[in-house]
Amino acid sequence: MRFVLRFHLKSSTTKIFKTRIMKTNKYFTHIRTLLFTIFIGINLSFQANNKIPLDSYFNHLSEANKEWRHHKEIVPKGLVSFESDKDRIQTHLNLVIEHLSKNYSSTFNSDQISNRLFLLNKLQEYADNKVFPINKYHPIRTPYFVDHLGTNCAVGQMIYVSGNEELVAKISKEHNYDYIKDIHTVGVVEWANEYGFTLDELKWIQPAYAPTQTMEQILGGANGRVTKIEKDLNGRLIIAGEFTELDGLPCLNVGYYRNNQLSCYGTGIEGKINDVMHNSQDLYVFGELYHNGQLYPMAMFNGTNWSFMDIPERIGAIATSAFRRGSDHKIKVAISHPSIPENQEIWHYLFDNTWEKQAKVNGVINDITASSYGRVHAGHFDSVTIYNSNATIDTTISVNNVVIHSHHSDTWYGIDGEVSDTVNTVLYVGNTLIFGGTCGYESGDNKVCLSRYYNSILQPLFLNNFGLRDHSINSLAHRMGSEIILGGDFDIEFMMGTFGSNLATYDLVYNSVNPIAILDKPVNTVTFSGYDLYVGGDFQDNMEIPINYLGRMTTNVGLNENKAEINLNVYPNPFNSIINLEGIEDGAKYSILYIDGRIAKSGTVVNQRIIDLDFLPKGSYLLQIESTKGKVVKKIFK
């Protein structure tokens, strides 16, 4: 089942217990991991696609399906290793099919036996093809009835080839990540009886799938919290936070990762870093920085030395957020200062190395980003005062935690709609702004965790409606297509077989969130470099695996994975009005998606073409094709 963020347990007793243990955060993760092991029977292996070492047949088969404990008498003797989890699942299915083909209930009639043998033959073809669901969203071994690419599980495939596609879709909608024993969809029992299977046999057939993603500590990690990871123009990852060591070597608060090495910018810098940026030559850091006993809002490293920069009218300011150059300035920075208590100011550092005051907010700015709408400023504030070129008050406007400055018209404006009580992070994807922030759980709280602004409409994406505590989205990153990475301080638990903390994916098309880690403490920053996700925060372990403040998550799931062998050729690419398709039959379903996941056009393929695409603006898109051979996704351009 596609599922919206839920923060609750399955029984009132467990809820009371969990509420109590939450008071002691130090032990909470260990206890809930133990609870989940008891309830679900998880395996915490992250070796999804590595060679699986030598072990007994029973241990390997039980890894694929715990029901083997009821069938020990037919488990092969001796030891075995597998090249991949796919090979292990194939062996599991081969052995189950062999036994079920020869053994069945004496109460079955001839039609049931005929149906049973027909579907077991189809299941053997399925096992021989070795194309199984991909566990993309869960950090532990989990059953998937249908995965994100439309691949059926073993039981789902039997129901599908029996002509009951609607039942497959219904089970996927209601119980996609559940074991057979927990699937209560109307029609399952009737189908099993008609086709000559018992529910216990279906339980035995259904495997669970190992995670495709792995998280590992980056070298020796850091020895303190990481607050910012930012990719620079030279391919390095800037790493900033509150630490004194990187990879076991002295480094004060700021370094970088490149070519599998962690290094320091000089010896680092004293103070608290809130933001970083890099141009083609120099590194800039912003925050509460100290040098020779003096407080500075920003500093620059030229590759050799640090130079500290102040705003003449605001000596001793603290910078909370900054953004790189615009058409009229080098740097935009938001600062706090004793002269403006409970307020912040936005300043521009101009090309002539002077400063210009732009605006003042009644509150705090946590993030600034660029977009087609203009520069977006987000945080916790309810009004903005705009200054004219003489640094005198021009006008004051009321806003709700977000204000946009359009450089084209030189206007400032807020946006109406539901947004978090405090916005921590902003992501711009495909003409869409995504806002993440704090979301309460009690009656009367602002429950908006994530919201989207598109086409002048601000709408909440998901809410903390069933939480046991306040939650926070601290950082966002765009993976590919419609998928967003969420990092923060939140739990996703005991809902449709899903469990995790502080790191998750969010699908803009299906409005679903799925955890990809169980980190003991909050995530502060996430970013992509290539296909790898880099994560920084306060955490020190992921399901009791040490990850010292700095982790990297790799995945073997790529954009162009498909369910079957589809050799699809798309041309012209870039396209104008028509897309030609080779290797796909007429009648196949297609969807053209904007990069942010919205559907631009959908239909069926006619004459191996998709036509009438003049209305699409120039840009990048995703083409998804679904045929009898499976699904495939291609990136296309106009």
Automatic annotation (TrEMBL):
Record keywords: Signal
Keyword field contains Transferase: no
Domain Rax2-like C-terminal: 214-360
Ranges in coiled-coil conformation: none
Boundaries of every Secretion system C-terminal sorting domain copy: 570-636
GO cellular component, one term: plasma membrane of growing cell tip
Record flagged with keyword Signal: yes
Protein name: Uncharacterized protein
